[in-house]
Amino acid sequence: MLAFDAIGAMATGHADISEVMFAQGLIITAIIILGLNIWTTNDNALYGSGLGFANITKQPKSRMVIINGVVGTLLAIFLYNNFMAWLNMLNSFIPVTGAVIIADYFIINKRKYADFKTVRFKTVNINAVIAWLAGVVGAYTIPGITPVNSVATAIVTYVVLTKLSSKKGQELEDKIAA
Length: 178
Known about the structure:
Blueprint: H1 2-12, H2 17-23, H3 27-57, H4 61-81, H5 83-108, H6 126-141, H7 146-177
């Protein structure tokens, strides 16, 4: 397939396979091939999501496939009309998650992770949640490069909150011991 793409790109000057086929007058063939490509990809996604939701909800798989198909179609229509906003949202949400994990490992708890079998983790780390939210807010409010702003804000917030909470925790333990 790659050879066909490369030869088509050299012949027509277009890199996209659909544009190559359109340039060669193969419009109906291009539509059929692209439609089948999308069909096979979405068929597997719909089957997997229907099966997963059927296991979670204990509902029949056929019902979950129909519900997921309808919800997925509606979300696809919304996403089609708001694609750049969706990408911008992902651009501010996803890097923040990694930033909190990186800050926890490299700055706060590196020694804890050395003996992973015996370490105890909090079920919900409220400092991480607050840092994640601060990173998202920082992405939208600080001028500059969105992912860099979100990552920097989340790391600084997480480190500061963790240091403050551990200092207060130590003071409380000292008072109890005294």
